């Protein structure tokens, strides 16, 4: 049986063998990241240390750079023409911008779930088995195990176990989104990026995904962009508030939503601009 | 800039309701001492009958705050503002209850002459009323400097309370047949002292609202 749990994750200090390293539980360390779309300076001097096995929420008004930031973490942003970056994003002790860092290698470790559920027009089974097959897994029994474990991990196994060969398009929006999460889990990632994963879902489906995120953080590090302030407050451990391409405040979610130190953060979470 | 006009409007409404409740509770406490000093049993009865209005005002504040929480889901300072309003309204409602208790002691004392000088009780009343009035203003203005001064007055009320109880105990020891009224006047002092404590509670809540941390002001 394939285990999806990434219990054998190594900390930065273990990887480096450096006992002096203090950021042993940092999964992503962003240092002085700048990003330009042509002449538009979209991210400005971002410094963010994201901890493993936590949910980190990125909040901020439209156009503040939060989606750009999350798409930079798996280098998806490179798909946009005329993008230029400076600074570093250290993922597990390596700068993802290093010339010899393969983007496929990065994306194997960093899964992504998007705003709109985007299953492939294939069966539920093939959706989940797609990634593992690309990585060369052909054994039927192994694939069966991966599909079951991934669907269980995404809390949708019981709903779809009798219809694995049906097209994923036949599922509800909430179910499709959990299929997409299961698809991300199937490649055994280390980090899951979520870009407004519930904005297209009804309240019940939203709640299911939120509960799922809480369960998933035991085994994965999750970074979630959300426009829903209450969602950030409910499900995240840390919250970063972005404004005009800058990180205004990054702190424990409890602090951000009770006693933020910057007035702009308080104004935003209180619904006074945005 | 979005200003959440609806939220601000509703919040102002609840704050106005709090002011009304506070004014009524403070006036009632004041009247209860007036009635006591004048042996006015009719006034005491009226205070007891009218307490229901203070209770209803607190319930109304509770209902409005719950609706605001459910519909507007405020966070940070806005959330503390509402929670602290709930607590302050409860403190003021308790002041109304103490006025009722004083009115009941008044009825028990009836027309009997006081067994002890009541200058201290008048002074306690004066300081307590000042504390409650000032804390109500500070609360609405969110002025923590004034709130700190109010808490300082509480020490003076506590000191007066201690002195007065000592005096009353002495009277009681020397005149056992007056023990009943000594007890009733002691209770009156206790109710004033507790009312002053509620003013201090509100001052502490105001600090929590503004600073986001808990403060003990009467240590």
Automatic annotation (TrEMBL), chain A:
Q: How does it sit in the membrane?
A: Peripheral membrane protein
Could you tell me which SUPFAM superfamilies the record lists for this protein?
P-loop containing nucleoside triphosphate hydrolases (SSF52540)
Q: Which InterPro entries match?
A: AAA+_ATPase, ABC_transporter-like_ATP-bd, ABC_transporter-like_CS, P-loop_NTPase, PstB-like
Q: Which GO terms describe its biological process?
A: phosphate ion transmembrane transport
Q: Which residues form the ABC transporter domain?
A: 21-269
User: MF terms per GO, please?
Assistant: ATP binding; ATP hydrolysis activity; phosphate transmembrane transporter activity
Q: Which GO terms describe its cellular component?
A: plasma membrane
- A Pfam family of the record is ABC_tran
Predominant cellular place of this UniProt entry's protein: membrane
Q: Which UniProt keywords apply?
A: ATP-binding, Cell membrane, Membrane, Nucleotide-binding, Phosphate transport, Translocase, Transport
Where does it localize? Cell inner membrane
Question: Which superkingdom, per the lineage?
Answer: Bacteria
Summary of the function given for this chain in its UniProt record: Part of the ABC transporter complex PstSACB involved in phosphate import. Responsible for energy coupling to the transport system.
Name listed for the protein in its UniProt record: Phosphate ABC transporter ATP-binding protein PstB
Q: Tell me which species this is from.
A: Paenisporosarcina quisquiliarum
> What gene, per UniProt, encodes this protein?
pstB
UniProtKB/TrEMBL annotation, chain B:
Q: Where in the cell is it found?
A: Cytoplasm
Keyword Signal listed? no
Please give the InterPro entries that the UniProt record associates with this protein: PhoU, PhoU-like_sf, PhoU_dom
Q: What is this protein called?
A: Phosphate-specific transport system accessory protein PhoU
GO annotation, biological process:
intracellular phosphate ion homeostasis; negative regulation of phosphate metabolic process; phosphate ion transport
Question: Could you say which protein family the record assigns here?
Answer: Belongs to the PhoU family.
Q: What broad class describes the main subcellular location of this protein?
A: cytoplasm
């Amino acid at each position: 049986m394939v285990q999806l749990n990434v219990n054998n994750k190594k900390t930065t200090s273990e990887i480096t063998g450096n006992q002096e390293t203090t950021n042993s539980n940092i999964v992503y360390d962003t240092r002085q990241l700048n990003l330009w779309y042509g002449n538009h300076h979209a991210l400005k001097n971002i410094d963010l240390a994201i901890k493993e096995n936590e949910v980190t929420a990125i909040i901020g008004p439209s156009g503040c750079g939060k989606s750009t930031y999350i798409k930079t973490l798996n280098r998806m942003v490179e798909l946009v023409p005329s993008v230029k970056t400076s600074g570093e994003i250290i993922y597990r002790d390596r700068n993802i911008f290093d010339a010899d860092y393969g983007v496929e290698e990065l994306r194997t470790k960093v899964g992504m779930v998007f705003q709109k559920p985007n299953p492939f027009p294939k069966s539920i089974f093939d959706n989940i088995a797609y990634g593992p097959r690309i990585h060369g897994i052909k054994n039927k029994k192994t694939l069966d195990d991966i599909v079951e474990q991934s669907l269980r991990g995404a809390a949708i196994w019981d709903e779809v176990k009798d219809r694995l060969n049906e097209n994923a398009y036949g599922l509800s929006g909430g179910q499709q989104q959990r299929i997409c999460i299961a698809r991300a889990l199937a490649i055994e990632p280390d980090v899951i990026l979520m870009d407004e994963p519930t904005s297209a879902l009804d309240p019940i489906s939203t709640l299911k995904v939120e509960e799922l995120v809480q369960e998933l953080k035991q085994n994965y590090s999750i970074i979630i962009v959300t426009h829903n302030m209450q969602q950030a407050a409910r499900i995240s451990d840390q919250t970063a508030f972005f404004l005009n391409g800058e990180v205004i405040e990054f702190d424990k979610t409890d602090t951000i939503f009770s006693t933020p130190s910057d007035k702009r953060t308080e104004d935003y979470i209180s619904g006074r601009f945005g | 800039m979005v200003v959440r006009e609806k939220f601000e409007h509703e919040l102002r409404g609840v704050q106005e309701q709090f002011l009304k409740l506070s004014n009524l509770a403070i006036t009632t406490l004041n009247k209860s001492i007036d009635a006591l000093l004048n042996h006015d049993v009719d006034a005491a009865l009226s205070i007891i009958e009218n307490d229901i209005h203070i209770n209803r005002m607190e319930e109304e504040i509770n209902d409005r705050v719950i609706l605001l929480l459910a519909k507007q889901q405020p966070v940070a300072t806005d959330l503390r503002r509402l929670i602290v309003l709930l607590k302050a309204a409860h403190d003021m409602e308790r002041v109304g209850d103490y006025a009722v208790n004083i009115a009941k002691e008044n009825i028990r004392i009836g027309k009997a002459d006081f067994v002890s000088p009541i200058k201290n009780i008048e002074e306690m009343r004066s300081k307590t009323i000042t504390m409650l009035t000032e804390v109500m203003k500070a609360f609405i203005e969110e002025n923590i400097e004034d709130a700190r001064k109010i808490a300082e007055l509480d020490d003076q009320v506590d000191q007066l309370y201690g002195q007065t109880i000592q005096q009353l105990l002495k009277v009681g020891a020397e005149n056992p047949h007056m023990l009943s009224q000594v007890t009733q006047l002691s209770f009156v002092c206790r109710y004033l002292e507790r009312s002053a404590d509620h003013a201090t509670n509100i001052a502490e809540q105001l600090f929590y609202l503004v600073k986001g941390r808990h403060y003990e002001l009467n240590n």
